[in-house]
Each structure stands twice: as C-alpha cells, then as structure tokens.
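CORE FACILITY INTAKE
Project code: CF-77B
Contact: R.S. (postdoc)
Sample description: multi-component assembly, three entities in total
Requested service: structural model of the whole complex
Turnaround: standard
Below are the sequence entries exactly as provided by the requester. Do not edit them.
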Amino acid sequence: MASRVDNLYFFLLALAGFFSVLIAGLIIYYAIKYHRRSPDQIGAQIHGGMALEIGWTVIPLLITMVIFVWGASVYYAMARPPDETLNVYVVGKQWMWKFQHLDGQREINELHVPVGRAVKLITTSEDVIHDFFVPAFRIKADVVPGRYINIWFHATKPGRYRLFCAEYCGTRHSGMIGEVIAMEPSEYQAWLSGGVSEGSLASAGEKLFQDLACNTCHRPDAQGRGPVLDGLFGKTVQLQSGETVTVDEAYVRESILHPTAQVTAGFQPIMPTFQGLVTEEQLLELVEYVKSLAARAETPAARPTTGGPAPGEATPVKR
Amino acid sequence: MLPEAAHHPHVPGLAHHFDNLEQQAEATTLGMWVFLVTEVLFFGGLFLVYTVYRTWYPEAFAAASHSLDITLGTINTAVLITSSLTMALAVHAAQLGQRKLLMLFLVATMALGLVFLGIKSVEYYQKFVEHHVPGPSFHFEEPQYAVHAQIFFSLYFLMTGLHALHMIIGFGIMTFMLWWAWRGTITAEYYSPIEIAGLYWHFVDIVWIFLFPLLYLLGRHAH
Amino acid sequence: MPSSTVLIPPHHYLNDGYGIKSWLLTRDHKRIALLYLASVTFFFFVGGAMAVLIRLDLATPAGDLVTDETYNKLFTMHGVMMVFFFLIPAIPSVLGNFLVPIMIGAKDLAFPKLNLFSWYIFVTGGLFTLYALITGGVDTGWTFYTPFSTVSSTTNVIPTALGIFITGFSSILTGLNFIVTIHRMRAPGMTWFRMPLFLWSTYATSLINVLGTPVIAITVLLVAFERVFHFGFFDPRLGGDPVLFQHMFWFYSHPAVYIMVLPAMGVISELVAAGCRKPVFGYPFVAFASLAIAVLGFLVWGHHMFVAGESVYSAMIFSILSFLVAIPSAVKVFNWTATMYKGAVSWDTAMLYAYGFIGLFTIGGLTGLFLAAIGLDVHVTDTYFIIAHFHYIMVGGTIMGYLGGLHYWWPKISGRLYNEALAKLSAGIIFIGFNLTFFPQFVVGYLGMPRRYHAYPPDFQVLNVLSSAGASILGVGYLLPMFYLMWSLRYGRLAGSNPWGAVGLEWTTTSPPPTENFTQTPIVTWEAYDYRAPAEGHVA
C-alpha cells in the first residue's frame, strides 16, 4: 500500500519537475532573448491563438484526470479494509493514545501488532479531534469524538514505526506521539500472552451489560422491551422512520448514547441514555460484547409480541 | 476646484462622483441587491445548521417545534406581510411625490414592525418561563428528546434573534427615511433611497417567511 | 516612450488638504488606499514577528525557545494575522482601492463613504484581535477546529472570533463597492473587454468576497456563541457534530485562498503586459479564467477534509473538482509565458517580481495536484508538505504579486521613483530567502513531520535549520523595501505621469493623480494593452 502512494508521488514529482523547469526555462529564455533593447521598443502585438489555448487547456485536463483516477484508486484501496482483520480499538485523548486489544491487553502510546496480517483500528476520541498518523505506513485518519472511524494497515516488515498525532489538539499536541511495533507472529503471540490480561474486552462488556441492567430490557421473554441482541450485530434492521441501518459499532454506540435517535421499528423510544454514565473504553467493551453475541444465536432477534406501555405515547403499538 | 466642476449645477441629491441621478440610482440599487445576497449567505449558514440537525433528529425537532405558540407566530407573519404592503405603498407614494402619504406609510410600516417585535418578546418570555431557553436551566418535557430539543431551541433563538436584529436595523433605516421625507429631500425625481429601504424591508420579511414554517410548523400535521 | 513634460502637478490628491482630519475623514479612494497600506503593513509585520519566533524555535528539535502554550499561540496568531489582516485585504484594499476607479475612468468608487467605513471596520477588527493577542493570545490555530475551540481551549477565542467577524464586513463592503463600481461607473467606451485584466481579477475576487465572507462570519459567530452558551452545534456530547464546523469553515476558507491569489494574478497580468509592451496573450481566456476560478473555488472545500471522516464518494467528487479548478490557473500561467514571446521584455524590479510569481506560483500550484490526488493527500495532509504548498502560493505568489504591484504603481501613487538597484537587490534576497525557507518543508513534510509541532524528532533537524536560515534572509528582504520606499517619498526622483511607458488609463493622468483622478472624463476608444499607437493619445 505504501509503495502505491510513493509511486504516485514520484510520478507527480517528475510531472511537477518537468512543468516547473519548462515554465521557468521559458521565462528565463524569453527574458534574455527578447530583452528590451531601446526605451521606445514595443513588443509584437499578438493577441492570442485558439489552437494553443485549446491545447493547453485540454492537455492539462487529460493529465489531471489521469492523476485523479490513480489517486482515487489508491484511496479506494485504503478505504476498504479486507474482510479478515485483526481489530484493535484506539482511543485518542489529550495527549495520549490508548489502545485496547480485544483480548484485554491495554497499551498506552505503543501498539504491538504482528506483521503479515491486516490490522484494523477502530478509533474514537474522548475529547477533541486528533489524528492517527503513521508516516511509514502512509496512513492517516482523523480521530473524532462521537464517532468511530476505521483505518487499516498491513505491516510487512518488523520494526518500530513512528506514530504522530496530526490534528492540532491543544498544548501537548507535539507530545502526542508513540510507536507502532510490528513483530514476527511468533513474537507477537509471546507478547500477547506475556502481559497481565484483564480479561477480553467482550467479557468486560458482558459484566458491564449486567451491571448497568441492560439485560432487564434486552431479553427474549415477555418482559423484554428492547431488541434481543443475540445475532444482531452486522445485520440490517429497519428503523421506526422506515430507513434501514446496519448494526455496526457506530450504531451500537449511538444506541447507548442517543437511544431515541434511531429506534428499531416496532419498539418504543423508552431506552434511557447512558451519556455521561459510561466512558469511551466502557463503550468499546459493550460494543465488543454485542459483537460477540453475533456468533451466539442461530435465530434472528425475536420481537416481543406485546409492547410495554410507553410514557407519553398515546396509542399502543399494534402488530 | 476643477474646471469641470464649474459646469455642473448642483443637482439635489446627486453625489459628486456620479454623472447623473440615473447612474446614482442604478448604482445604489445594485449595491442594495448585492448586500441582500450577502445577507442570504449569512442567514444561509444558520439554515444549513438547521437542515442538518432537523434531518438527523426529526422527532425531537417536531416535539420542540410543537411547543411554540403557533397563534402568535401566525399573527406575526400576517403583521410582517402587511408591513411589506405598507412599505410598498410608501415607495409608490414617494414615486408620485406624495410626501404626507409617504410619511404615513413609513410610520405604519414601523408601527407594524413594533407590533411584531412586541409579540416576539411575549414569545421569548413564554419560552423563558417554560424553561426552554438553552443553558443550565433548560428542561424539556419529553426527556428522551431533551438533548436535541435544546439544539432546536438554540437555533430558534439564534435565527429569530438575528432576524429581530435586522428588523431593528430596519427601524433605523426607516427613521432616516422618515426624516428625509419630512425635510423634503425625497421628491418625485429623487426617491431611490425609499426604494432601497423597501428592498431591505422586503428581504427581512422574506427571511421570516422561511423561518416561520421551519420553526413553527414542524410536526403539526395530524398523526 | 518619453515621459510627460509635467513632472509633478501643483494640485494632487496628496496635497489636497493637510492634517490628520483630512486623512481620517477622507472619501478619496486613493487616500483610503494609503490608510489600508499603513494598516496592512503593520499587521504584516506583527504576523511576520510571530513567524520569526516560530522559525527560531523550530531550529532545534527540542522546542526550547518558548513553551508549548506560547508556541501554539504564536502559530495561531501568525495564521490569523496573515490570513485575515494581510493576505485577504492587501491587494484589493490597497492596490484595488487606488486603481479601480482610475482604471475605469471614474472619479471615485460607487460608495466613497462606505469605503472609508470599511477601513474603520478593518481597523476595529484588527484591534480586537490585537487585544486578544496582548491579553494572552489564542491557541486554536487559525482554523478554530471544534470541539477544541468551543470546549477545550482556555484562551481568548471569543475576542479573536469577534475580531475576525468584524473584519469580515470590511471585505464584504469593499467587494460590494468594487462590483457596483465596475458595473455602473465605467467611462464612456470602456467596455468589459477593454478593461485591464486587473479589473477582471478584482471583480472575480469581489464576487468571492461577497458570497463567501458571510459564511465565515456566521461560523465564527457560532463558535463564539457555543463557547458562551454551550448550544451544542459542534459538541458531540450535546448531539452536535464537530465536522459540521469544518464544512462551514472551509466553505469560506477555500474560496478565501482565491481571494488571496486572484488579485495577485491580476497584478501579474498588468506587469507582464507593461513589462513586455504587448497585450496579454489570450485576453478573453485570462479574463474568463478568473471567473472560472471564482466559481469552481466554491466547489472544492471538501479537499481539506479528505481524512476528516467524509465519505469515500464525497472525497472522490471533491478530488475531481479540485483538479478542475487547477486548469484555469494553468491557463493563466501559459498565457503569461506566451506574452513574453516576442515581447520587449524589461528587467525592471516589477517584472522581476512577476517572473518570480509565475515560477513560484507554478510550483505551488503543481504541488496542489499532489494534494488533490486523495491517495497521496492522505499521507501529506496535516504535514509540512501542506505548509510548503500554501506558502508557495501565498508568499511566493500573493506577496510577490503585491510587492511587484507596489513597485510598479509606486510612481503613480507617490510621484517618485525608488532606487532601482536596491529594489532589485531586495527582490533577489526575497526570492532566495523564500525558496530556502519553504522548499525544505516539502521534503520534511513528506518524511512525516506533522504541522503545528513545537518539538520534533531530531532527524528532521537539518531541514528545519535550512528553513529557519531561509526565514532570516526572507525577513531582511521584506524589511528593505520599507526603507527605500519611504526614502523615495522625500528624495526619490520625480516620476512623471508614465515612467514605464505603459498603456492604461492610470498612466494618462499625472503622478500623483488629482483628487478627481482626471481633469476630464476619459473617452475610451482603444483596446486594452494597445501599444501600437502613441499618437492616439492614450499614452502620455
């Protein structure tokens, strides 16, 4: 991936070099060759030439379209992670990077990854906009509060690669740096098992799910008032408004923080918000837990046949 | 004093850098139109923010809009439209050189504008009492919509506030026009200031005509 | 071309009234231009002082000259001062104000009192921002990204935002004035296509000023309100979207860069025509290119947000449009170069600045292609590559155009000639200093040095030292014109109405011009840049 970026860069360098030298050369050449020889001399009163105008409009247009297609195709590849990725959650905060491996490993400012595998980073910010930038991998993406943004890479050589924050974020912006440490797969395994594991993200999320009493509504029996989450992650659901949405990390996060914004069809907007009650890390744990439920159920999410009475709603839901 | 100046008899109302009244009128009118375009872009930023958040949170916006007083809003709309009528009549009177009628219609326009602002103040007070003013004392009856309803009310106050500010500036302009009319500066030959003031006032009216449905009429159709 | 026998008229705009009131209450567009000249020069040196401190600090990797907080305030103020108080107003409000009425054969702009009012607004806004600077500074970057600027920063965001808000009206009203003037006050015979190209650029710039500035006005106002009232438009915790700010900000700030460069391009058209004594090659194409840049410039703002989280498809559209907006600029560069073919090419200072502009703008513009290619932009955005790109255009382009124009029209403005040798020397110092400052930044940016970094990894030091060395040379280059131009006011040779032997209405009137610009309203019967016939009376 990085070499594709560099190839485009070198092509553009050559192109830019050519045109710069051409224009600079012509200017210097004309300035000397046609240097004014007497105070009264005037230039040849040429007004223009259609052929030239069309030529130097169309040719740059064609060249730029070539560059566009090339740049766009590189970008498209960057924007589409492969289906199989090793996922790591990244939380940017003033002024450090927090990494959460799925099995519970936490890192600050250093990210260990294996070479030879596509790694997808699911990023968000706790406060202001940051930017995850690893020059060696030619990757960069803003890390925005309130959203998850994905960025992926595939390290081919082991080594330590500089990580910078590339969106100004306050006083210690230039101190918000770190390293991505790519290791041979065997060493990576050793590193994984070496650390003190606090349990996987998903298991932490399961505990939180019970502590916060989510399971009192999100249950398959008649007392359930919310959608059952088994097997839900990754599916498309229909919302009250008629639109459909894919249940991805962003949707789960939104549902926890702003539950009335995108309510699943057939349910009341009665879920309370957990904004301010959960940290970004806890959100990641809950997201991972819901993801882990996707594998669990064979049957799709069941809807309760009677909706519970909802405060403020005049008509009961009929089905 | 340049030679040319001696050839120009003083034309009342003509600024020295213009050749004639016609050029001056065309220039000042074009100037007002360009200025109004800038105002469209200025309000446009707020309309953009409104559009984004209404698209994302339609139910919260509908609930918040429902809490506005539609009777007062409708009365205000009628008042403002009528004031545009009186303004147009003022311009007509000016074109015909009818000084007294011009002054009458200018005063009527200002009076209607004052009624509008008065009703607006009543509405603002109502919102204050209902704790719908964004800030620490904000409280919305349907808690699941509270966060996004606060965005609605922020936009409500900002947009109507900016509009009200433009109306107050309009009063200033009208006052000037009234004074000029009283002094006899406005004649059947020189009435472009009234036309230009009229353009401004009509613009303020049109902004309200967009604000009213967007702010007051959401979610009012039968369920 | 012999210059006029009347070297200096007894009555002209500079001696038409003495004393401070005659200046502060003037309605003469020429005096207002000089009021702007004084103010923008002041703000330029304030912004320049910030730049000196920044480059001094960056000469060492550890960032030990100033603290983190101070550094952040320095680059913010450098950006705010330079963008809003120098680059945007300089050419339109100084050269534009002075020249627009004269070039179209009018006595003044359409709204002289509004013109003076615009200057007062400008100065008021500038004072607000200076107040913010003196009482502690602001550290958000000139881009004010939310939620940092609305929630997190503890500095003087509100006075700075208000200062920019107020100053915006100066741009809007000046643009309005120019548009109406060009439409309604052209002298008899001065058709659109007989106008000098500087007026086409000024017109296009004014369109952008009038359409774009109100959007930044409401945007910074929203930032100020959000800081005070916590409305939540840009705060995700209150249901808002921080990226919405970026859309609104860049919707103005991208066209703003065309406000900065289009007037300079207009100056270059004049310099090239006069410096080669022939019409600009492809006049209609250059004229329409200005309009095309203004229109297309409004459609590309998303290229500042390729990594900000916008969708793949939006990114593609903005990329293609960004390539399109490069084409009219390229067309202009080719036309200027073609104008030099078989010209009677002068090597005067003004022409040197024009050559410098064409070369450096070409480099800056070509690096823009690197950025429009999304796949490459991902790597270089938010690094020193971007900083180098925009400085090539703003400094290598706009400032060189400004200085070139200032030198070219200085005899008309002041009635005096400056010391040509010193002027050429300064131009050379500026050119060398500029390239030494900014070329290394392309390299260090591609290597990965992010922007707005106070301290950086030691292996970037060599390139940073080169850049800082260049900056000191550039600073000297900028100071020199202050001295010899001021010196010329008193001791310079009298210029006469047309020291360069150029064609244009401004060269048919005296240097300095009378307050009413012309003794008689000109009647225009010749095409722009018609150097063939001095006998037709349009060359002195």
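Facility notes:
- Residues 298-319 of chain A have pLDDT under 50 and may be disordered.
- The radius of gyration of chain A is 28 Å.
Invoice: internal transfer
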